[in-house]
Design brief:
The chain is of the alpha/beta class and 496 residues long. The chain contains eleven helices and 24 strands. The strands form six sheets. Strands 1, 2, 3, 10, 11, 12, 13 and 24 form an eight-stranded mixed β-sheet that branches. The structure holds flavin-adenine dinucleotide.
Amino acid sequence: VSSGPHRIERDTIIECGTLVIGSGAGGATVAARLAEAGHDVVIVEEGPYVDHAGVPDQVPEGMSRLWRGGGLTVALGRTPIAYAEGRCVGGGTEINSAIMQRAPETLLEDWARTYQITDYGPTQLRSYYDRSAAIVNASLTPPPLGAASDILQDAGARLGWKISPLERAQRYCVGTNLCSIGCPTGGKQSMTATQIPAALARGARLIAECNVRRLVLKGSRVTRVDAIARAWDGLRHRVRFRPRDVFVCAGAVHTPALLRRNGVRRNVGNTLRLHPTLKVVARFAREINAQRSRLPLNAITEFMPDQRLGGSVFLPGYFGMSVAEDWENRRWLLEEWRNCGMYYAMARGSGTGTVRSVPGLAEPLVSYALSPVDWNNLGLGVARLGQAMFAAGATHVYPSIVGHPGWTSAETCTEFADRPLPASRTNLMTIHLFSSCPPGEDLSRCATNSFGRVHGTENLFLADASQVPEAPGVNPQLTIMAMALRNAEAFLAGVH
Ligand SMILES: Cc1cc2nc3c(=O)[nH]c(=O)nc-3n(C[C@H](O)[C@H](O)[C@H](O)COP(=O)(O)OP(=O)(O)OC[C@H]3O[C@@H](n4cnc5c(N)ncnc54)[C@H](O)[C@@H]3O)c2cc1C
């Protein structure tokens, strides 16, 4: 039992009650709840433990330490989609913007029906959402929010579009704007500021830099879990876990990859969903100094749930990457960087993708096919985003389309409102992935039962983004936490 992360210094066998694989929004929530109930919990995390005082303050170092693949991860398809995930203790919550939202009630009702999820819907989830929101102190940030937020506010007011403030997981946030590379003050209520210390205080053990490779199933039970851990001196050691129960919480990509690699394949990794997102760089006549303020803490929600228009984190490193997408057309912006902001149009995503593990490859093969509806939403979304930018005083708007000369007026920026975006030149990205192992009693489409137990197994459970049945159209962390809490409590109550 420890008050901080353990290191493995030799080949080891560990007996435990519940092994939680992955320490992100889902895993940390399960670990804290089970430890609170007195269970013997071990959390195993592939990435490093980076404490608040030790987080890097530069984008390249931050991305290489806390992001999976240093940020170079992609879903293949006719149009590839760059995706981002955390790979550290706390998972994505350490690098995310901590915007907390609940899934629309109509979607929750729809999912309960479509997937036959027992005891699921807005009423049944309310208390899980409320408790999760309280754990991370989901709250509005007091104004002033800064020029980057004011731009969206102003645009919404001028165009008569609905604009909504966004709650965040924060307590005494001082606005360093470094959320995406690890909060240096602990103001962001990520998992290392909330659920991980709560779990450790109740006796859970945490093993960082320990990669689970194998689940050994005998009949319907997992009897052993094999992992490779890195010691302080960099040497690697074998760890063999003998758990009574296992929660896989490795995220929407790695949960299905781990299951499939170990022969658990029914409805696993066939229905990945995501929020395809198209960014723009907007240049204004005046200085914005977006690097100095928090990321925009409001969004244009007039066109939800199909499209959301909002603002991205702005740091010189990210801005440089956006300019480098099309050096010819955009290099002049480098000198103008204080006048620039980065904004996005996000579609709910109705296409699906797959996750496959390939022998010999460390990372799974991820693919995603945008649906025609997704393309329409992105085209319309970026046209509306352009209009918003010009309404708020932009002089130039560059969509993430290679070779695009940029727009200089509200009239020209509607170019893709009614004709297709160029699929081979459009640079799409996403930070929201889910639905690769949906829950429910419909055996033709669900990987687990209504409470996360993998169908056909007795002691193998899931609790992470892979369980969110479909794309929610809003930021997913709070839904992931609420569903993880629900799965953990069903497990404690023996309802599974
Ligand atoms: C840049 C960025 C910004 C975002 N902004 C927001 C936001 O503002 N609001 C919001 O709601 N959401 C946001 N998200 C999304 C949100 O962070 C994720 O949806 C959420 O963290 C997913 O939770 P999870 O538990 O499914 O997985 P994760 O948080 O990804 O955790 C999974 C963990 O499992 C570990 N793991 C994987 N495989 C193994 C293995 N084999 N062995 C051991 N460990 C393993 C991983 O290293 C990882 O730490 C953002 C994401 C990113 C990347």
